[in-house]
User: Which sequence fits this backbone?
């Protein structure tokens, strides 16, 4: 019996020794750390597709300057993986709202990617005061019929904001002559782009010398279009169920003041937070509506939220 016990103890000691030796071999020494780093993580140069376009207008990729600028945006946006995955997730939720409106106005579908680079498909606020998914300035919104005040700001209404963006882009296309220049003007303004075209005596966005932001603008849009259209090509792996979906809603007409949106929400089996999630254009806890204007408030269909 003692012989067996000694044998087992010896086997156990050998096992522990083996584990210790294995652990030492696998520990991050200078040599094996560098080997593991090289073998476990790789960054690849990307091949810029031979044919890229924006809104049907070809990108002149045989021009080495254009090729390098496109390569930069593909690299930056491919290897910013967390941000890329969020764009896929949000696009599934918001593109179906934007696409039919773009089609209704005759604006190319590619402009939905402009909204991606403008705001990351969030209700962002810029230092200059632009707001919402389409980053609309107060003056532009009001010129195109949006109500903007402390009580209601329709720049946060995705449907109405998309319509304003379409109107602005159509005017830019008519004035500047191409969709690429119209996209640039969304960033730099019609007057700014028109002035630079005149000063530099050129007719194409790709021939303009522009500031950093506007100079990268079109390339960023095309990069996001390329990546979001071909996810696996750029290393993004997800399932359909990993993406975000729009919660179905129905519209409730309101043509009077609402004194308390918390109580208003309770009438529909939701709370104030959920009401605001679906109606971010309602900026306060009440609605003034002295003019008895007709508003439509989105209410989520029953069963999508567990409200306590």
Assistant:
């Amino acid at each position: 019996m003692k012989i067996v016990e000694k044998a087992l103890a010896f086997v156990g000691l050998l096992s522990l020794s083996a584990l210790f030796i294995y652990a030492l071999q696998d520990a991050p020494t200078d040599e094996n750390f560098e080997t593991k780093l090289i073998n476990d993580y790789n960054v690849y140069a990307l091949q810029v597709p031979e044919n890229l376009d924006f809104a049907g207008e070809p990108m002149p990729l045989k021009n080495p300057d254009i090729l390098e600028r496109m390569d930069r945006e593909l690299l930056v946006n491919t290897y910013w993986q967390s941000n890329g995955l969020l764009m896929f997730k949000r696009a599934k939720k918001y593109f179906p709202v934007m696409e039919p409106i773009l089609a209704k106005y005759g604006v190319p579908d590619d402009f939905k990617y402009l909204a991606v680079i403008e705001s990351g498909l969030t209700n962002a606020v810029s230092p200059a005061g632009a707001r919402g998914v389409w980053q609309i300035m107060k003056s532009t919104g009001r010129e195109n019929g949006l109500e903007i005040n402390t009580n209601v700001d329709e720049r946060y209404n995705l449907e109405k904001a998309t319509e304003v963006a379409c109107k602005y882009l159509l005017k830019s296309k008519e004035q500047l002559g191409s969709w690429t220049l119209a996209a640039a003007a969304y960033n730099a303004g019609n007057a700014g782009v028109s002035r630079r075209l005149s000063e530099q005596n050129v007719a194409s966005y790709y021939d303009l010398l522009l500031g950093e932001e506007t100079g990268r603008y079109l390339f960023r849009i095309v990069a996001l279009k390329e990546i979001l259209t071909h996810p696996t090509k750029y290393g993004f792996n997800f399932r359909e169920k990993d993406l975000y979906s729009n919660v179905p809603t129905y519209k409730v007409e309101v043509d009077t003041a609402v004194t308390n949106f918390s109580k208003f929400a309770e009438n529909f089996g939701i709370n104030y937070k959920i009401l605001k999630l679906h109606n971010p254009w309602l900026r306060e806890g009440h609605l003034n509506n002295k003019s008895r204007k007709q508003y439509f408030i989105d209410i989520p269909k029953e069963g999508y939220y567990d409200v306590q």
In short: The two ends are 66 Å apart (CA to CA). Residues 249-300 form one domain. DSSP finds twelve helices and four strands in the chain. The chain has two domains: 53-242, 249-300.
